[in-house]
Amino acid sequence: MRSQHSGGPGLQRPSVDDPSARTEESTRPVSAPEPLGPDSLTWKYFGGWRGMLFGPWAGSMQNMHPGLGAGVEEHSEFFDERWERLYRSLYPIYGVVFDGPHAPETAAQVRGYHNTIKGVDKKGRKYNALDPGTFYWAHATFFYSLMISIEWFDGPLTLEQKHKLFDEHVQWYRLYGMPMHSVPESWEAFLEYWDHMCRNVLEDNKATRDVLDLSNLDRPPFLRWFPEPLWKLTRPHGVGVFLWLTVGLYDQPVRDLLGYRWTARDEKLHKLVGRAIGLGGALVPRRFRYHPRARAGWDRAAGRISPDAAVIHTPARNLPPVDRRDSPVHYSPKVTSQHRPGVTR
Q1: How many other C-beta atoms are found inside a 10 Å radius of the C-beta of residue 109?
Q2: pTM across the whole model
Q3: Local structure of 125: helix, strand or coil
């Protein structure tokens, strides 16, 4: 799907003339947004635990957008609680895809978290998280991470599959109720858009470097049993490996922007690591490959729980600090330490 040195396990791109000049409103027919379902390719591949490996890639790619980076730098306390923020954020992110009849409500909630994120950055540029181009860029990174993760873990997609996933990402995005003029018209146009963003729009900024700085990363929740002194001793090696995995997912223009060197040997080894992870993940029973919110979507579709069952939420251990739980920018549901599908809390 890409040449050996093109960057990111995705996707040879056509040349770009001037995609930024494409400002016409989408000509796609307008109809009521319809949530994706179990017949979609997105459901098959999105929402898995292996996607956690793309956290630094997604966070850094989003933050390199000038408006997003400024919003994170001036409005976010993400770095005070990295693991908790990541774990709880996955619930509404996955919910827009997997919540079935509740998906439009989830999408409206996600959009609402961005209402107050606006201002002027250090270069005097106005930013607004609900600017259509800014909001779509965040969505584009989720979609593109899905594409490159499939190819990294599982092998090449067919052109037909790429077109289907692209159309599904448009259907998914429509749930947010945002203007559609920022969305490319086709998979091929998306590749031009992505290339243009990587080469001409993204910036190396503090918010990006903060995401990539894992030097003080605490133990993840599933390793709380691991002795902290031993964690601190082994962390530098683990951080180096994780950063290397992330750099391998970037497109070459992004590596150049951030000053990372990448060799043909790195490329070959990176591909082997991705396939090994994919093969290892295939040994996990299918049901347990999915995040709880995604798993509940499959359960709803299969009739294991009622179609109208309440969505499940993050457990209390992932909630923001008490003094931030009423902030409109936080997903902070009223939950207990339990989270079971079909149970209202």
Answers
A1: 15
A2: 0.86
A3: coil
- Give residues with Cβ within 8 angstroms of 139, minimum separation 6: 169, 172, 173, 176
Question: In terms of C-beta density within 10 A (0-12 exposed, 13-18 middle, 19 or more buried), how is residue 337 classed?
Answer: exposed
Cα separation, 208 vs 65, in Å, equals: 9
Distance, first Cα to last Cα, the chain: 45
Please report, to the nearest 10 degrees, the dihedral formed by the alpha carbons of residues 206, 183, 156, 43 taken in order: 100
Q: Tell me how far apart the alpha carbons of residues 197 and 285 are, in angstroms, rounded to a whole number.
A: 38
- The Cα-based distances of 4 to 152, 251, 271, 275 in angstroms read 13, 11, 10, 16
Q: What is the CA radius of gyration of the chain?
A: 20
How far is 169 from 161, CA to CA, in rounded Å? Answer: 12
- Return the closest-CA partner of residue 242 out of 47, 60, 5, 2: 60
Closest to 26 measured CA to CA, from 140, 168, 184: 184
Q: What residue spans define the domains of the chain?
A: 34-312
Per residue of the chain (345 residues), give pLDDT as tens.
443 334 444 454 443 334 444 444 444 455 678 999 999 999 999 999 999 999 999 999 999 999 999 999 888 765 567 888 888 899 999 999 999 999 999 999 999 999 999 999 999 999 999 999 999 999 999 999 999 999 999 999 999 999 999 999 999 999 999 999 999 999 999 999 999 999 999 999 999 999 999 888 888 777 888 888 888 898 888 889 999 999 999 999 999 999 999 999 999 999 999 999 999 999 999 999 999 999 999 999 999 999 889 999 998 888 888 888 888 888 889 876 544 444 333
CB-side neighbour CA atoms (13 Å) of 228: 3
Residue 258 tokens read as 């951030």
Structure tokens at 233: 């001793």
